[in-house]
Specification:
The chain has helices spanning 20-30, 121-133, 148-158, and strands at residues 45-51, 54-59, 64-67, 75-76, 85-90, 96-100, 105-108, 116-119, 164-169, 175-179, 184-187, 195-196, 209-215, 218-223, 228-231, 239-240, 249-254, 260-264, 269-272, 280-281, 290-295, 301-305, 310-313, 321-322, 331-336, 342-346, 349-353. The chain is mainly β and 360 residues long.
Length: 360
């Protein structure tokens, strides 16, 4: 496995084992459409995002569901693959991308009703090999350049078994998708073509890139071993920031006052008020993995855990309190609906919470 959560199961135990057997399974799943399910809102879901006022969530077996009534009812989209999908984001209310296991990148132009595949792990490995063979790599300042050919050969040998884990949809033409072992793909033509961008991330040892966010004018990534990377040049180079803590980070977000908040394994939460030059540990009343976070339109900062706890902060992440009255289910992501309800997704599917719960 790439990573098992601190609890030993759950969201990140969904990452596939690497190797030829996994690659063979993945090739079959790449050619198999997602199976229609009777209760779309009850399947395991990993990520959720907004397409205008529509909510779109993705999960296991290629299931993608959408809601036009703030999460009260859900329909299933048509998806050409049967792999776990880990991230979804939109450039416009109609145009969006999803990505996940076995190097899959999907696109929709009808707000999530139908999807087509733009890239798979076989093609991604070929792009990684092409990038490593570029003569310019020899003069690259990136610390990972020296191992580029070895890494690419390993990817080709292992097959299309590596998952994408996060993405930045920067516009209708510009998308960046990140994943295991520093796997990174970029398009600047809406997905008509993709290029390997992994040599632009200054990470010598190819850590898994779990979280990505645009905060202000800069792009941020967070990864294993407490690593955080920042690009101040539009994604051309991602340089490491000051160390946080030696644990895996699953996400990063920016609070209303400009501070950075990262979160991850075993209740880890840290905050920086100086652009990532230093970090302060923020205490949470939990030792469970913090799997996702959101800054609401009101400015309230939320964190959720794999054990089903919901935490809120009204001081830009300086302190967090537990929100009472939330049924403890395995939560993996959350989004704010147009009516201000909270839509949480995870191992039990969709959970909808009224905004009033934050004031209880």
């Amino acid at each position: 496995m790439l990573l098992v959560s601190a609890a030993g199961a759950g969201l990140f135990s969904l990452l596939p084992a690497t190797g030829r057997a996994a690659a063979h399974t993945g090739i079959a799943a790449l050619d198999t459409p997602s199976i229609p399910v009777k209760s779309p809102a009850s399947v395991l879901l990993v990520a959720i995002n907004r397409a205008g006022n529509r909510l779109v969530a993705v999960g296991e077996h290629g299931v993608i569901i959408y809601s036009d009534d703030n999460g009260l009812s859900w329909a299933q989209g048509q998806v050409p693959v049967n792999v776990t999908l880990t991230c979804v984001a939109f450039a416009t209310p109609q145009l969006g991308w999803a990505a996940g296991h076995f190097g899959v990148i999907l696109i929709t132009s009808d707000a999530g009703k139908t999807w087509t595949m733009q890239l798979n792990g076989i093609q991604a490995n070929q792009l990684t090999q092409q990038a490593a063979q570029d003569p310019a790599v020899a003069s690259s300042a990136c610390p990972c350049a020296a191992l580029a050919l070895v890494r690419a050969a390993h990817f080709m040998d292992e097959g299309p078994d590596k998952p994408f884990l996060s993405m930045l949809v920067l516009g209708p033409q510009h998308v960046m998708v990140f994943g295991a072992y520093r796997m990174t793909m970029v398009t600047t033509d809406g997905g008509k073509s993709w290029v390997d961008w992994s040599l632009h991330i200054y990470d010598k040892f190819s850590h898994n890139l779990y979280g990505a966010a645009v905060i202000g004018a800069d792009y941020y990534l967070c990864a294993e071993e407490g690593l955080v990377f920042c690009s101040t040049d539009g994604g051309n180079t991602f340089l490491p920031l000051a160390p946080t803590s030696p644990v895996t980070l699953f996400g990063i977000m920016g609070a209303g006052d400009g501070s950075l908040i990262v979160y991850g394994v075993a209740g880890t939460c840290l905050r920086s008020t100086d652009g990532g030059q230093s970090w302060t540990t923020i205490a949470l009343a939990s030792q469970d993995d913090v799997t996702s976070g959101r800054v609401l339109r009101s400015g309230t900062v939320l964190l959720i855990t794999e054990a089903g706890a919901l935490f809120k902060s009204v001081d830009n992440g300086a302190t967090f309190t537990l929100v009472p009255g939330v049924t403890p289910l395995p939560f993996f992501d959350l989004e704010e609906a147009a009516d201000n309800a909270l839509i949480l997704v995870g191992g039990a599917g969709v959970t909808r919470l009224s905004e009033t719960i934050l004031n209880s």
